[in-house]
Amino acid sequence: MSKKKILSVKDLNLIHGKKPCGRCLELTGPEVESNICPVCGSIVACADISFDLNEGEILGIVGESGSGKSTIVQCLYFDVRPTGGEAYISCFEEGKVNIFSESSQKKRYMRSNLMGIVYQNPQRGLNFDFSCGGNIAEKLLMAGIYNIKKIRDRSTELLTKTEISTERIDDPPGNFSGGMQQRVQISKALANNPAILFLDEVTTGLDVSVQARVLDLIRQLQRQLGISMIIVSHDLRVIRLLAHRTIVMKNGRIVEMGLTDQILEDPQHKYSQLLVNSML
Amino acid sequence: MNDMNDVLKRKNRKYNFGFIDENSKREIRRKILKAVAIPGYQVPFGSRELPIARGWGTGGLQITLSLIGPDDILKVIDQGCDFSVNAVNLKRFIQKTTGVEITEDTLKATIIQTRHRIPEEKMGENQILVFQVPYPEVLRTVEPSEAVTREMHAEMNYSKLWVYLYEEIVKWGEITIGARYPVKVNGRYIMDPSPIPRWDVPKLHMAETLYLFGAGREKRIYAIPPYTRVEPLEFDDFKFNVESFDGKACSLCGSTDTFLDEIFNSETGQKTYICSDTSYCSKVSARKKVSHE
Protein backbone atom coordinates (compact mmCIF):
# COMPACT_ATOMS: atom_id res chain seq x y z
CA MET A 1 0.00 0.00 0.00
CA SER A 2 1.27 3.43 -0.92
CA LYS A 3 2.11 5.72 1.95
CA LYS A 4 1.05 8.93 0.23
CA LYS A 5 -0.90 11.18 2.54
CA ILE A 6 -4.30 12.23 1.26
CA LEU A 7 -5.57 14.04 4.33
CA SER A 8 -3.66 15.62 7.12
CA VAL A 9 -5.34 17.06 10.23
CA LYS A 10 -3.50 19.27 12.73
CA ASP A 11 -4.69 20.38 16.18
CA LEU A 12 -8.36 20.28 15.29
CA ASN A 13 -10.62 21.40 18.10
CA LEU A 14 -14.23 22.38 18.60
CA ILE A 15 -15.50 24.08 21.73
CA HIS A 16 -19.21 24.67 22.25
CA GLY A 17 -19.92 27.57 24.58
CA LYS A 18 -20.69 31.23 24.48
CA LYS A 19 -17.47 32.40 26.12
CA PRO A 20 -14.73 29.80 26.46
CA CYS A 21 -12.53 30.85 29.40
CA GLY A 22 -9.25 30.02 27.69
CA ARG A 23 -8.39 27.25 30.11
CA CYS A 24 -11.02 24.85 28.77
CA LEU A 25 -8.46 22.65 27.02
CA GLU A 26 -6.21 22.10 30.05
CA LEU A 27 -9.11 21.52 32.45
CA THR A 28 -10.83 18.83 30.37
CA GLY A 29 -9.85 15.49 28.88
CA PRO A 30 -9.58 11.83 29.74
CA GLU A 31 -7.41 12.55 32.83
CA VAL A 32 -10.28 14.32 34.53
CA GLU A 33 -12.84 12.13 32.73
CA SER A 34 -14.84 15.08 31.50
CA ASN A 35 -15.17 17.32 28.47
CA ILE A 36 -17.08 20.04 30.28
CA CYS A 37 -14.92 22.92 31.46
CA PRO A 38 -15.39 23.35 35.24
CA VAL A 39 -14.74 27.11 35.03
CA CYS A 40 -16.94 28.30 32.19
CA GLY A 41 -19.12 25.29 31.45
CA SER A 42 -18.05 25.14 27.77
CA ILE A 43 -18.15 21.73 26.15
CA VAL A 44 -14.97 20.61 24.44
CA ALA A 45 -16.34 18.36 21.68
CA CYS A 46 -12.86 17.52 20.46
CA ALA A 47 -9.37 18.92 20.95
CA ASP A 48 -5.73 18.36 19.93
CA ILE A 49 -6.82 16.10 17.10
CA SER A 50 -3.93 15.42 14.72
CA PHE A 51 -3.67 12.52 12.34
CA ASP A 52 -2.93 11.60 8.73
CA LEU A 53 -4.95 9.51 6.34
CA ASN A 54 -3.02 7.67 3.64
CA GLU A 55 -4.19 6.92 0.15
CA GLY A 56 -6.35 3.81 -0.03
CA GLU A 57 -6.36 3.42 3.72
CA ILE A 58 -9.29 2.85 6.05
CA LEU A 59 -8.92 4.68 9.31
CA GLY A 60 -11.21 3.70 12.16
CA ILE A 61 -12.26 6.05 14.94
CA VAL A 62 -13.64 4.31 17.96
CA GLY A 63 -14.84 5.55 21.33
CA GLU A 64 -17.85 5.85 23.57
CA SER A 65 -20.85 8.10 22.92
CA GLY A 66 -19.93 11.75 23.21
CA SER A 67 -16.22 11.14 22.83
CA GLY A 68 -16.05 13.40 19.76
CA LYS A 69 -15.76 10.76 17.02
CA SER A 70 -18.53 12.11 14.83
CA THR A 71 -17.46 15.70 15.52
CA ILE A 72 -14.20 15.08 13.68
CA VAL A 73 -15.99 13.79 10.60
CA GLN A 74 -18.58 16.56 10.71
CA CYS A 75 -15.82 19.16 10.88
CA LEU A 76 -14.02 17.60 7.93
CA TYR A 77 -17.23 17.46 5.88
CA PHE A 78 -17.92 21.12 6.83
CA ASP A 79 -21.18 20.30 8.60
CA VAL A 80 -19.87 22.17 11.64
CA ARG A 81 -17.22 24.84 11.84
CA PRO A 82 -14.29 23.92 14.07
CA THR A 83 -13.04 26.41 16.67
CA GLY A 84 -9.44 25.90 15.63
CA GLY A 85 -7.09 23.66 13.74
CA GLU A 86 -6.03 22.92 10.20
CA ALA A 87 -6.61 20.25 7.62
CA TYR A 88 -5.06 19.68 4.21
CA ILE A 89 -6.24 17.50 1.35
CA SER A 90 -3.54 16.48 -1.12
CA CYS A 91 -5.85 16.80 -4.15
CA PHE A 92 -7.05 20.30 -3.24
CA GLU A 93 -4.64 23.15 -4.07
CA GLU A 94 -1.82 20.58 -3.87
CA GLY A 95 -2.47 20.16 -0.18
CA LYS A 96 -1.06 23.59 0.62
CA VAL A 97 -4.23 25.36 1.74
CA ASN A 98 -5.97 24.87 5.07
CA ILE A 99 -9.42 23.69 3.99
CA PHE A 100 -11.13 25.28 7.01
CA SER A 101 -10.01 28.76 5.94
CA GLU A 102 -11.57 28.44 2.48
CA SER A 103 -14.71 30.25 1.28
CA SER A 104 -18.04 28.47 1.46
CA GLN A 105 -18.07 28.09 -2.35
CA LYS A 106 -14.74 26.26 -2.25
CA LYS A 107 -15.96 24.15 0.65
CA ARG A 108 -19.00 23.22 -1.38
CA TYR A 109 -16.73 22.26 -4.26
CA MET A 110 -14.72 19.98 -1.98
CA ARG A 111 -17.87 18.45 -0.56
CA SER A 112 -19.36 17.68 -3.94
CA ASN A 113 -16.20 16.70 -5.80
CA LEU A 114 -13.69 15.31 -3.34
CA MET A 115 -15.72 13.90 -0.46
CA GLY A 116 -18.61 11.59 0.25
CA ILE A 117 -20.38 10.90 3.50
CA VAL A 118 -22.71 8.25 4.84
CA TYR A 119 -24.55 9.26 7.99
CA GLN A 120 -25.96 6.98 10.66
CA ASN A 121 -29.40 8.37 9.92
CA PRO A 122 -30.39 8.19 6.22
CA GLN A 123 -32.77 11.12 6.81
CA ARG A 124 -29.68 13.28 7.07
CA GLY A 125 -27.86 12.07 4.00
CA LEU A 126 -30.81 11.64 1.66
CA ASN A 127 -33.56 13.97 0.52
CA PHE A 128 -36.78 12.02 1.02
CA ASP A 129 -38.70 14.34 -1.33
CA PHE A 130 -36.59 13.14 -4.24
CA SER A 131 -36.47 9.67 -5.76
CA CYS A 132 -33.54 7.43 -5.04
CA GLY A 133 -32.12 8.17 -8.51
CA GLY A 134 -32.71 11.88 -7.88
CA ASN A 135 -30.61 11.71 -4.75
CA ILE A 136 -27.70 10.24 -6.66
CA ALA A 137 -28.32 12.74 -9.46
CA GLU A 138 -28.04 15.62 -6.99
CA LYS A 139 -24.44 14.75 -6.28
CA LEU A 140 -23.66 14.49 -10.00
CA LEU A 141 -25.48 17.74 -10.82
CA MET A 142 -23.51 19.44 -8.05
CA ALA A 143 -20.37 18.44 -9.89
CA GLY A 144 -21.73 19.93 -13.11
CA ILE A 145 -22.89 16.88 -15.07
CA TYR A 146 -25.97 18.07 -16.95
CA ASN A 147 -26.69 15.03 -19.09
CA ILE A 148 -29.73 12.92 -18.24
CA LYS A 149 -28.40 9.79 -19.94
CA LYS A 150 -25.04 9.99 -18.20
CA ILE A 151 -26.78 10.56 -14.86
CA ARG A 152 -29.13 7.59 -15.42
CA ASP A 153 -26.27 5.32 -16.46
CA ARG A 154 -24.15 6.26 -13.47
CA SER A 155 -27.06 5.86 -11.02
CA THR A 156 -27.92 2.46 -12.45
CA GLU A 157 -24.29 1.39 -12.21
CA LEU A 158 -24.07 2.49 -8.57
CA LEU A 159 -27.34 0.87 -7.58
CA THR A 160 -26.22 -2.38 -9.16
CA LYS A 161 -22.98 -2.13 -7.25
CA THR A 162 -24.83 -1.59 -3.98
CA GLU A 163 -27.25 -4.42 -4.77
CA ILE A 164 -30.42 -2.39 -5.15
CA SER A 165 -32.80 -3.45 -7.87
CA THR A 166 -32.50 -0.88 -10.66
CA GLU A 167 -36.25 -1.07 -11.18
CA ARG A 168 -36.61 0.92 -7.99
CA ILE A 169 -34.47 3.80 -9.20
CA ASP A 170 -37.45 6.15 -9.30
CA ASP A 171 -38.91 5.15 -5.94
CA PRO A 172 -38.55 7.57 -3.05
CA PRO A 173 -36.12 6.32 -0.39
CA GLY A 174 -38.97 6.53 2.13
CA ASN A 175 -40.35 3.32 0.61
CA PHE A 176 -37.12 1.44 1.33
CA SER A 177 -36.00 -0.55 4.34
CA GLY A 178 -33.30 0.84 6.63
CA GLY A 179 -30.56 -1.30 5.12
CA MET A 180 -31.55 -0.31 1.60
CA GLN A 181 -31.64 3.37 2.53
CA GLN A 182 -28.13 2.98 3.87
CA ARG A 183 -27.03 1.44 0.58
CA VAL A 184 -28.66 4.28 -1.36
CA GLN A 185 -26.69 6.68 0.83
CA ILE A 186 -23.52 4.80 -0.05
CA SER A 187 -24.39 5.02 -3.77
CA LYS A 188 -24.92 8.74 -3.42
CA ALA A 189 -21.66 9.20 -1.55
CA LEU A 190 -19.77 7.29 -4.23
CA ALA A 191 -21.40 9.05 -7.20
CA ASN A 192 -18.44 11.32 -8.01
CA ASN A 193 -15.66 8.86 -7.18
CA PRO A 194 -14.69 10.85 -4.09
CA ALA A 195 -11.12 10.85 -2.87
CA ILE A 196 -12.25 10.50 0.74
CA LEU A 197 -15.32 8.76 2.09
CA PHE A 198 -16.62 9.38 5.60
CA LEU A 199 -18.72 6.66 7.22
CA ASP A 200 -20.42 7.75 10.42
CA GLU A 201 -21.87 4.81 12.38
CA VAL A 202 -23.20 3.29 9.15
CA THR A 203 -24.30 -0.02 10.61
CA THR A 204 -25.73 1.19 13.91
CA GLY A 205 -29.41 0.36 14.15
CA LEU A 206 -29.36 -2.26 11.41
CA ASP A 207 -29.99 -5.92 12.19
CA VAL A 208 -27.02 -8.25 12.13
CA SER A 209 -27.54 -9.84 8.71
CA VAL A 210 -28.06 -6.46 7.07
CA GLN A 211 -25.05 -5.11 8.96
CA ALA A 212 -22.94 -7.88 7.51
CA ARG A 213 -24.07 -7.07 3.96
CA VAL A 214 -23.36 -3.36 4.34
CA LEU A 215 -19.92 -4.03 5.81
CA ASP A 216 -19.22 -6.52 3.05
CA LEU A 217 -20.18 -3.90 0.50
CA ILE A 218 -17.89 -1.29 2.02
CA ARG A 219 -14.97 -3.71 2.03
CA GLN A 220 -15.64 -4.68 -1.56
CA LEU A 221 -15.86 -1.08 -2.72
CA GLN A 222 -12.67 -0.24 -0.94
CA ARG A 223 -10.88 -3.10 -2.62
CA GLN A 224 -12.25 -2.25 -6.08
CA LEU A 225 -11.96 1.52 -5.97
CA GLY A 226 -9.21 2.07 -3.44
CA ILE A 227 -11.00 4.98 -1.78
CA SER A 228 -9.54 6.35 1.43
CA MET A 229 -12.09 6.13 4.22
CA ILE A 230 -12.64 7.27 7.75
CA ILE A 231 -14.98 4.98 9.63
CA VAL A 232 -16.54 6.16 12.85
CA SER A 233 -18.05 3.52 15.06
CA HIS A 234 -18.53 2.63 18.70
CA ASP A 235 -18.49 -0.99 17.65
CA LEU A 236 -15.01 -2.54 17.77
CA ARG A 237 -16.12 -5.44 15.60
CA VAL A 238 -16.83 -3.08 12.72
CA ILE A 239 -13.44 -1.48 13.23
CA ARG A 240 -11.70 -4.85 13.36
CA LEU A 241 -13.35 -5.92 10.15
CA LEU A 242 -12.56 -2.80 8.14
CA ALA A 243 -9.93 -0.50 9.54
CA HIS A 244 -6.21 -0.72 8.83
CA ARG A 245 -5.39 1.80 11.51
CA THR A 246 -7.47 2.91 14.46
CA ILE A 247 -7.83 5.96 16.66
CA VAL A 248 -9.27 5.50 20.15
CA MET A 249 -11.03 8.53 21.57
CA LYS A 250 -12.19 9.51 25.02
CA ASN A 251 -13.61 12.78 26.29
CA GLY A 252 -12.83 14.57 23.06
CA ARG A 253 -9.15 13.51 22.87
CA ILE A 254 -7.19 10.87 21.06
CA VAL A 255 -5.92 8.47 23.72
CA GLU A 256 -4.35 5.92 21.44
CA MET A 257 -3.57 5.57 17.76
CA GLY A 258 -2.03 2.65 15.91
CA LEU A 259 -2.52 -0.42 13.74
CA THR A 260 -5.89 -1.98 14.41
CA ASP A 261 -4.41 -5.41 15.19
CA GLN A 262 -2.02 -3.87 17.63
CA ILE A 263 -4.74 -1.95 19.45
CA LEU A 264 -6.93 -5.02 19.67
CA GLU A 265 -4.15 -7.38 20.77
CA ASP A 266 -2.10 -5.08 22.94
CA PRO A 267 -4.01 -1.99 24.00
CA GLN A 268 -1.84 0.52 25.86
CA HIS A 269 -4.20 3.07 27.28
CA LYS A 270 -6.46 2.19 30.20
CA TYR A 271 -9.57 3.10 28.26
CA SER A 272 -8.55 1.10 25.18
CA GLN A 273 -8.00 -1.91 27.45
CA LEU A 274 -11.48 -1.46 28.91
CA LEU A 275 -12.93 -1.16 25.44
CA VAL A 276 -11.23 -4.30 24.15
CA ASN A 277 -12.07 -6.27 27.26
CA SER A 278 -15.73 -5.37 27.11
CA MET A 279 -16.01 -6.54 23.52
CA LEU A 280 -18.55 -9.35 23.35
CA MET B 1 -37.87 68.70 -11.48
CA ASN B 2 -39.15 71.97 -12.95
CA ASP B 3 -40.97 70.10 -15.66
CA MET B 4 -42.67 67.95 -13.09
CA ASN B 5 -43.74 70.93 -11.02
CA ASP B 6 -45.18 72.53 -14.13
CA VAL B 7 -47.16 69.44 -14.85
CA LEU B 8 -48.42 69.35 -11.30
CA LYS B 9 -49.44 72.97 -11.37
CA ARG B 10 -51.07 72.65 -14.73
CA LYS B 11 -53.13 69.67 -13.73
CA ASN B 12 -53.71 70.99 -10.20
CA ARG B 13 -53.23 67.59 -8.58
CA LYS B 14 -53.60 66.64 -4.95
CA TYR B 15 -50.87 63.99 -5.13
CA ASN B 16 -47.19 64.10 -5.85
CA PHE B 17 -46.34 63.37 -9.47
CA GLY B 18 -46.63 59.58 -9.74
CA PHE B 19 -48.34 59.28 -6.33
CA ILE B 20 -45.23 58.05 -4.45
CA ASP B 21 -43.16 60.72 -2.65
CA GLU B 22 -39.84 61.68 -4.19
CA ASN B 23 -37.68 60.12 -1.46
CA SER B 24 -39.35 56.75 -1.86
CA LYS B 25 -38.98 56.97 -5.62
CA ARG B 26 -35.31 57.69 -5.16
CA GLU B 27 -34.91 54.63 -2.93
CA ILE B 28 -36.61 52.46 -5.50
CA ARG B 29 -34.40 53.90 -8.27
CA ARG B 30 -31.30 53.15 -6.19
CA LYS B 31 -32.48 49.57 -5.79
CA ILE B 32 -33.10 49.37 -9.54
CA LEU B 33 -29.53 50.55 -10.17
CA LYS B 34 -28.23 47.84 -7.89
CA ALA B 35 -30.40 45.27 -9.64
CA VAL B 36 -29.04 46.37 -13.02
CA ALA B 37 -25.50 46.16 -11.70
CA ILE B 38 -26.00 42.56 -10.54
CA PRO B 39 -28.12 40.94 -13.27
CA GLY B 40 -30.60 38.41 -11.90
CA TYR B 41 -29.93 39.20 -8.23
CA GLN B 42 -33.00 39.94 -6.11
CA VAL B 43 -32.61 43.28 -4.38
CA PRO B 44 -34.87 43.81 -1.34
CA PHE B 45 -36.72 47.13 -1.26
CA GLY B 46 -39.25 48.85 0.97
CA SER B 47 -42.47 48.11 -0.86
CA ARG B 48 -44.80 51.12 -0.41
CA GLU B 49 -48.49 51.15 0.38
CA LEU B 50 -50.53 51.95 -2.69
CA PRO B 51 -54.25 52.31 -3.29
CA ILE B 52 -54.04 48.90 -5.00
CA ALA B 53 -53.74 45.67 -3.01
CA ARG B 54 -50.42 43.83 -2.98
CA GLY B 55 -50.48 40.96 -5.40
CA TRP B 56 -52.15 43.09 -8.08
CA GLY B 57 -49.03 44.37 -9.74
CA THR B 58 -47.75 46.75 -7.07
CA GLY B 59 -44.12 45.73 -7.61
CA GLY B 60 -44.24 46.64 -11.27
CA LEU B 61 -46.32 49.70 -10.49
CA GLN B 62 -43.76 51.09 -8.05
CA ILE B 63 -40.97 50.63 -10.59
CA THR B 64 -43.05 52.36 -13.27
CA LEU B 65 -44.01 55.24 -10.98
CA SER B 66 -40.40 55.76 -9.86
CA LEU B 67 -39.09 55.93 -13.41
CA ILE B 68 -41.84 57.70 -15.28
CA GLY B 69 -41.47 61.34 -16.31
CA PRO B 70 -43.97 63.73 -17.85
CA ASP B 71 -42.69 63.03 -21.40
CA ASP B 72 -42.97 59.27 -21.17
CA ILE B 73 -45.51 57.32 -23.15
CA LEU B 74 -47.00 54.40 -21.26
CA LYS B 75 -48.46 51.07 -22.25
CA VAL B 76 -49.85 48.55 -19.77
CA ILE B 77 -50.73 44.98 -20.67
CA ASP B 78 -52.16 42.06 -18.76
CA GLN B 79 -51.54 38.63 -20.34
CA GLY B 80 -50.83 40.43 -23.60
CA CYS B 81 -54.09 42.39 -23.50
CA ASP B 82 -54.36 46.19 -23.19
CA PHE B 83 -57.97 46.13 -22.03
CA SER B 84 -58.24 43.57 -19.24
CA VAL B 85 -59.20 44.73 -15.75
CA ASN B 86 -55.74 44.79 -14.17
CA ALA B 87 -54.20 46.65 -17.10
CA VAL B 88 -57.01 49.21 -17.28
CA ASN B 89 -56.93 49.90 -13.54
CA LEU B 90 -53.17 50.38 -13.42
CA LYS B 91 -53.24 52.51 -16.55
CA ARG B 92 -55.94 54.77 -15.15
CA PHE B 93 -54.16 55.14 -11.86
CA ILE B 94 -50.84 56.04 -13.46
CA GLN B 95 -52.47 58.48 -15.83
CA LYS B 96 -54.46 60.14 -13.06
CA THR B 97 -51.35 60.71 -10.95
CA THR B 98 -48.92 61.65 -13.75
CA GLY B 99 -50.95 62.83 -16.73
CA VAL B 100 -48.67 60.96 -19.17
CA GLU B 101 -49.75 59.90 -22.62
CA ILE B 102 -51.12 56.36 -22.89
CA THR B 103 -50.68 54.16 -25.94
CA GLU B 104 -51.47 50.65 -27.10
CA ASP B 105 -48.68 50.67 -29.67
CA THR B 106 -45.70 48.64 -28.45
CA LEU B 107 -43.25 50.57 -30.62
CA LYS B 108 -44.51 53.98 -29.54
CA ALA B 109 -44.32 53.37 -25.77
CA THR B 110 -41.24 54.34 -23.74
CA ILE B 111 -42.31 52.31 -20.71
CA ILE B 112 -44.40 49.17 -20.90
CA GLN B 113 -45.67 47.55 -17.74
CA THR B 114 -46.64 43.94 -18.26
CA ARG B 115 -48.22 41.02 -16.53
CA HIS B 116 -47.09 37.61 -17.80
CA ARG B 117 -46.20 38.43 -21.43
CA ILE B 118 -43.51 40.08 -23.53
CA PRO B 119 -44.98 41.91 -26.54
CA GLU B 120 -44.62 40.20 -29.93
CA GLU B 121 -43.03 43.23 -31.57
CA LYS B 122 -39.32 43.59 -30.91
CA MET B 123 -38.61 46.35 -28.41
CA GLY B 124 -35.65 48.70 -28.73
CA GLU B 125 -32.91 50.31 -26.67
CA ASN B 126 -34.96 53.36 -25.72
CA GLN B 127 -37.70 51.35 -24.11
CA ILE B 128 -38.12 49.74 -20.69
CA LEU B 129 -40.23 46.68 -19.99
CA VAL B 130 -41.49 46.39 -16.39
CA PHE B 131 -42.70 42.96 -15.23
CA GLN B 132 -45.14 42.29 -12.41
CA VAL B 133 -43.79 39.37 -10.40
CA PRO B 134 -45.82 37.22 -8.00
CA TYR B 135 -43.02 34.87 -6.84
CA PRO B 136 -39.52 36.28 -7.27
CA GLU B 137 -37.73 33.33 -5.63
CA VAL B 138 -36.99 30.70 -8.24
CA LEU B 139 -35.81 28.24 -5.58
CA ARG B 140 -39.02 28.42 -3.55
CA THR B 141 -40.39 25.25 -5.19
CA VAL B 142 -37.49 23.26 -3.80
CA GLU B 143 -36.67 25.14 -0.60
CA PRO B 144 -39.19 26.83 1.72
CA SER B 145 -36.73 28.81 3.84
CA GLU B 146 -35.72 32.30 2.66
CA ALA B 147 -32.51 32.20 4.72
CA VAL B 148 -31.48 28.98 2.99
CA THR B 149 -32.38 30.11 -0.54
CA ARG B 150 -30.28 33.25 -0.11
CA GLU B 151 -27.35 31.12 0.94
CA MET B 152 -27.96 28.83 -2.03
CA HIS B 153 -27.83 31.82 -4.40
CA ALA B 154 -24.67 33.12 -2.74
CA GLU B 155 -22.94 29.79 -3.18
CA MET B 156 -24.44 29.12 -6.63
CA ASN B 157 -25.84 25.96 -5.11
CA TYR B 158 -28.56 25.17 -7.61
CA SER B 159 -28.37 21.38 -7.52
CA LYS B 160 -31.79 21.01 -5.87
CA LEU B 161 -33.47 22.90 -8.68
CA TRP B 162 -31.64 20.76 -11.21
CA VAL B 163 -32.80 17.60 -9.42
CA TYR B 164 -36.35 18.97 -9.63
CA LEU B 165 -35.97 19.24 -13.42
CA TYR B 166 -34.36 15.78 -13.56
CA GLU B 167 -37.30 14.29 -11.68
CA GLU B 168 -39.75 16.02 -14.04
CA ILE B 169 -38.06 14.38 -17.02
CA VAL B 170 -37.92 11.00 -15.31
CA LYS B 171 -41.58 11.17 -14.25
CA TRP B 172 -43.22 12.79 -17.26
CA GLY B 173 -40.67 12.48 -20.05
CA GLU B 174 -40.51 16.27 -20.30
CA ILE B 175 -40.19 19.38 -18.17
CA THR B 176 -43.78 20.34 -17.41
CA ILE B 177 -43.12 23.92 -16.32
CA GLY B 178 -45.38 26.06 -18.52
CA ALA B 179 -44.76 29.52 -17.18
CA ARG B 180 -42.00 30.80 -14.85
CA TYR B 181 -39.35 28.70 -16.57
CA PRO B 182 -36.08 29.17 -14.62
CA VAL B 183 -33.30 30.99 -16.47
CA LYS B 184 -29.65 31.60 -15.74
CA VAL B 185 -28.70 35.25 -16.08
CA ASN B 186 -25.20 36.33 -17.15
CA GLY B 187 -23.85 32.90 -16.19
CA ARG B 188 -24.39 33.56 -12.50
CA TYR B 189 -27.83 33.84 -10.87
CA ILE B 190 -30.76 31.59 -11.65
CA MET B 191 -33.86 33.74 -11.88
CA ASP B 192 -37.64 33.50 -12.10
CA PRO B 193 -38.61 35.38 -15.27
CA SER B 194 -42.15 35.94 -13.84
CA PRO B 195 -44.99 33.80 -15.24
CA ILE B 196 -44.29 34.49 -18.91
CA PRO B 197 -44.89 31.48 -21.17
CA ARG B 198 -41.86 29.55 -22.41
CA TRP B 199 -42.57 31.21 -25.77
CA ASP B 200 -41.26 34.51 -24.38
CA VAL B 201 -38.13 33.14 -22.66
CA PRO B 202 -35.82 33.37 -25.71
CA LYS B 203 -36.74 37.07 -26.00
CA LEU B 204 -34.89 37.70 -22.73
CA HIS B 205 -31.55 36.68 -24.23
CA MET B 206 -29.33 39.51 -25.51
CA ALA B 207 -32.30 41.85 -25.74
CA GLU B 208 -31.91 45.52 -26.61
CA THR B 209 -34.39 46.54 -23.93
CA LEU B 210 -33.90 46.96 -20.21
CA TYR B 211 -36.07 44.45 -18.35
CA LEU B 212 -37.06 45.29 -14.78
CA PHE B 213 -38.91 42.94 -12.44
CA GLY B 214 -40.87 44.10 -9.40
CA ALA B 215 -42.49 41.96 -6.71
CA GLY B 216 -44.52 44.23 -4.42
CA ARG B 217 -45.79 41.65 -1.98
CA GLU B 218 -42.43 39.88 -1.72
CA LYS B 219 -40.53 43.21 -1.73
CA ARG B 220 -37.94 42.35 -4.36
CA ILE B 221 -36.60 44.09 -7.47
CA TYR B 222 -34.39 42.44 -10.06
CA ALA B 223 -33.28 43.18 -13.58
CA ILE B 224 -31.89 41.97 -16.88
CA PRO B 225 -29.82 44.78 -18.42
CA PRO B 226 -29.70 45.09 -22.23
CA TYR B 227 -27.41 42.65 -24.05
CA THR B 228 -27.21 40.15 -21.20
CA ARG B 229 -26.93 36.40 -21.62
CA VAL B 230 -30.12 34.69 -20.45
CA GLU B 231 -30.20 30.92 -20.77
CA PRO B 232 -33.11 28.65 -19.85
CA LEU B 233 -31.99 25.66 -17.77
CA GLU B 234 -31.59 22.61 -19.97
CA PHE B 235 -29.74 19.32 -20.07
CA ASP B 236 -27.22 18.35 -22.77
CA ASP B 237 -29.60 15.69 -24.02
CA PHE B 238 -32.85 17.41 -23.06
CA LYS B 239 -33.10 20.84 -24.59
CA PHE B 240 -35.46 23.65 -23.67
CA ASN B 241 -38.30 24.15 -26.14
CA VAL B 242 -41.09 26.65 -26.61
CA GLU B 243 -44.80 25.95 -27.03
CA SER B 244 -45.71 24.70 -30.49
CA PHE B 245 -48.64 26.15 -32.44
CA ASP B 246 -48.07 24.01 -35.51
CA GLY B 247 -50.88 24.26 -38.01
CA LYS B 248 -52.70 26.88 -35.94
CA ALA B 249 -53.27 30.49 -36.86
CA CYS B 250 -54.94 33.49 -35.26
CA SER B 251 -58.60 33.55 -36.30
CA LEU B 252 -58.63 37.35 -36.32
CA CYS B 253 -55.40 38.38 -38.05
CA GLY B 254 -54.15 35.08 -39.45
CA SER B 255 -50.72 35.27 -37.79
CA THR B 256 -48.90 31.97 -37.44
CA ASP B 257 -45.83 33.28 -35.64
CA THR B 258 -47.36 34.54 -32.38
CA PHE B 259 -48.29 33.12 -29.00
CA LEU B 260 -51.92 32.02 -29.33
CA ASP B 261 -54.72 31.81 -26.77
CA GLU B 262 -57.21 29.00 -27.17
CA ILE B 263 -60.86 30.02 -27.18
CA PHE B 264 -63.34 27.25 -26.56
CA ASN B 265 -66.90 27.65 -27.69
CA SER B 266 -68.99 25.58 -25.29
CA GLU B 267 -72.04 25.66 -27.57
CA THR B 268 -70.41 24.37 -30.71
CA GLY B 269 -67.50 22.62 -29.01
CA GLN B 270 -65.17 24.37 -31.42
CA LYS B 271 -61.67 25.55 -30.56
CA THR B 272 -60.36 28.73 -32.13
CA TYR B 273 -57.14 30.59 -31.56
CA ILE B 274 -56.36 34.28 -31.27
CA CYS B 275 -53.15 36.22 -30.63
CA SER B 276 -52.48 36.77 -26.94
CA ASP B 277 -50.92 40.15 -27.83
CA THR B 278 -54.08 42.07 -28.75
CA SER B 279 -52.47 45.28 -29.95
CA TYR B 280 -50.18 43.37 -32.30
CA CYS B 281 -53.17 41.42 -33.57
CA SER B 282 -55.17 44.55 -34.40
CA LYS B 283 -52.10 46.10 -36.01
CA VAL B 284 -51.70 43.12 -38.34
CA SER B 285 -55.44 43.09 -39.10
CA ALA B 286 -55.39 46.80 -39.95
CA ARG B 287 -52.37 46.35 -42.20
CA LYS B 288 -54.08 43.53 -44.08
CA LYS B 289 -57.22 45.60 -44.49
CA VAL B 290 -55.21 48.45 -46.03
CA SER B 291 -53.41 46.14 -48.45
CA HIS B 292 -56.74 44.59 -49.46
CA GLU B 293 -58.17 47.99 -50.25
From TrEMBL, chain A:
The record's Gene Ontology biological-process terms are: organic phosphonate catabolic process
Keywords, A to Z, come to: ATP-binding, Nucleotide-binding
CDD domains, sorted: ABC_NikE_OppD_transporters (cd03257)
**Has the keyword GTP-binding been applied to this entry?**
no
Q: Where is the ABC transporter domain?
A: 27-276
Top-rank lineage group of the source organism: Archaea
User: What Gene Ontology molecular-function terms does this entry list?
Assistant: ATP binding; ATP hydrolysis activity
Q: Tell me which Gene3D superfamilies the record gives.
A: P-loop containing nucleotide triphosphate hydrolases
Membrane as a keyword of this entry, yes or no, is no
Q: What is this protein called?
A: ATP-binding cassette domain-containing protein
**Native source species:** Methanoliparum thermophilum
